[in-house]
Amino acid sequence: MMEAKYVYGFNEGNKDMKSLLGGKGANLAEMTKIGLPVPPGFTISTSACNDYYDNSELIRDEIIKEIENYLKSLEENLNKKLGCSKNPLLLSVRSGAVFSMPGMMDTILNLGLNDSSVLALANATQNERFAYDSYRRFIQMFSDVAMGIPKYKFENVLDDAKESKGYKIDTDLNSEDLKEIVTKYKAIYKKEIKQDFPQEPKDQLMLAIEAVFKSWNNPRAAVYRKLNDIPHNLGTAVNIQSMVFGNMGESSGTGVAFTRNPSTGENKLFGEFLINAQGEDVVAGIRTPQDISSLKNVMPKAYDEFVKITSILENHYKDMQDIEFTIEREQLYILQTRNGKRTTTAAINIAVDLVNDNIIDEKEAIMRIEPKQLDQLLHPSFESKALKNATVIAKGLPASPGAGSGKVYFNAQDVVEAKGRGEEAILVRLETSPEDIEGMVCAQGILTARGGMTSHAAVVARGMGKCCVAGCSQIKVDEYNKEIRSDDFVIKEGEYISLDGSSGCVYIGSVKKTDVALTGSFEKLMNWVDKYKDIIVRSNADNPRDAAMAIKFGAQGIGLCRTEHMFFDEDRIPAVREMILSNTLEQRLVALEKLLPMQREDFVAMFKVMDGKPVNIRLLDPPLHEFLPHDDESINHLAKVMGLQVSEIKRRIIDLDEFNPMLGHRGCRLAITFPEIYEMQAKAIIQGAIEASKEGIKVTPEIMIPLVGEVKELKVIKDMIKETVDNIIAAEGVNIPYTIGTMIEIPRACLSADEIAQEADFFSFGTNDLTQMTFGYSRDDAGKFLGEYVNKELLEKDPFEVLDQKGVGKLVKMGVQLGRSSKPNIKLGICGEHGGEPSSIEFFYNLGLNYVSCSPFRVPIARLAAAQAFIKNPR
Ligand code: PEP
Ligand code: MG
Fold this sequence. Notes:
alpha/beta; Dna Ligase, domain 1; D-amino Acid Aminotransferase, Chain A, domain 1; Glucose Oxidase, domain 1; 4 domains
């Protein structure tokens, strides 16, 4: 039997080995393979991490031995030795999961330094300052990242040292200062850990490796995985790489660059670098980095080589790359490459540009865009007129585009709580860190005083599609007193500001937002999407305004017009209540007479907006409790209108009160007891259709009956509607094609769909009610406990958001099969919330439904998801 292998040299892997080597490790191996200047090293695989957890958090001897063997070859290869007092090898230790995870332990640099190797390093490089700078960095990173000692304890020492000497920046510290700092750092370590700072490099290494393994399960990483649907059992790899030094003086430096602009997608190198620094200085935003373009002047040779490599990498990976590099005494090294995180705008522009340049094809471009990401584009930005009148209080870096307004809060927890109270909040921080993730998710926008375009706040906000202004140094963020200050103003916790993540401007107060305009690359991409998608996308819309919006977003018809929503209007609701509370048929007919013209006009307007596209109108389905009056004023008013005593109205309200309104007298049940309601609606639909068609508009109304569970319910109502409609058509002498169908939203309807299909021209699956009734979870109350179900992993997802394919999906499948078995050409659609959710859309496509229908803002998402479903599984 072959022995298990847990460690891989960079020369043994490639980019397709991500699940074993993690993203970072696989790409380091790939870059080594294609001959790029990567400092040598090896990767401890994710299987070693999983082995560690399988063995009660123990790194087994067999694995330790393998690590030691690889370390030995690295030492031989470089002719250096870890911890050696002559020619010491220093290492970087970096975590590297399959998917990049900012919540995890990231990097420890300069591992291998101790009190004697620091002298050797100083000697070998003839640079004592550099050696002690590296040592103090190592102690600080090891203590923070591997041992959990708070970073600020070290930063305070550094700040005090600079202040007492009157220095401005870190590079002003000389080697004597740094020696003192090292002594103080070691004292902090001893005080916190109750042990001396480990001097044995192999101990340092094993502790660091173990810290990376442990970081896989730290709470931040767990939250991040949950947010991003990353499975918890993947484990992380650990990359051990020989150090190269960006802090060796003025001919050294380090930086991060994207091959294209990650905010806009512009095909131009985008990034920043710092001279005489190590990697973490760029990300931490301690010194302000320079724009990558000025590297050309500082180190022209290294710059030219870097530009060449960026284009090699982009062509090799066929995607925009996010690259980390270090220059050690004019010599360029590449430390990492990965597909760069980007805004949706950038993602679309890049994908379309890559197709135009024949690097990828249309299908690949479609697959590159995460449907949910489109949400970012579909949200409003600030209205230009409102913006002109708004007061700019500061300007920072435009780190992540979009617009956000809200009350300011100064820590993540306060933002989470504010969101819980229904407030809109802006997270304001000196700089963000992975602990802030949840607050960032809940915030409308993020403002930081420090950090550049590649700082944590900027990178994470862009990934989330959240607007962010970073590095806003014109303001002072006082996290302790919870206020933002400048010379001219103070903004306290709970006061409003607005952020424009595209310009970097910060405004006082809440600025009005506007709708989005979708053009250019978006349009091009969506044209490709429509070429490939093979399921119709309709929209749910209850009024002409939403219908117009749906068309703008590419809807091919209305899949659900909820007529009860047409009555929510203040001036209509009294007539609806009158209808519901009527005691006699006569009373009800009076109320219905009032409603008829309103409904007719509604439908005419809808038909006009839809201009020939199909319109599915669902007859009244009011959960009665949503419509009954509760306050005295409404009750008194109603009594007057209906000519009844207040007490009579109150009695009627009590009569109509239901224990389970969602399972009560709603939907078609209402029409079984009061057929005149649906009769009025059918009249209004067909009269509206006739009126619209007289104006030259082609109309094919689809009349939909809700909440059918037994075919006889449908038959009775359908016959009544048909008679009403046919009489009107005959009397008018016109020809209006129409269909009558039903919602399938009760489990029994799925089970008896073959019978129901006999009486229906179409089915539309109502997966909201179907989920409610399949699980037995009330739609109105499930929010109270479903979060906990998901947290405790009893359910993977909230089934009202993402279709439960195992249970509810099985019923839908049964409904489809039985329906088609008795009526092969029956039209099938879905209009529950799941019609706009990508994984559910894929499921519906694979079931062979004719259309999905969702809210207008989700139509582009649904179109893209539909195209992706086709590309994955063409039919
Ligand atoms: C459904 O139940 O899925 C549906 C679309 O109808 P409503 O949400 O109006 O009950
Ligand atoms: Mg329903």
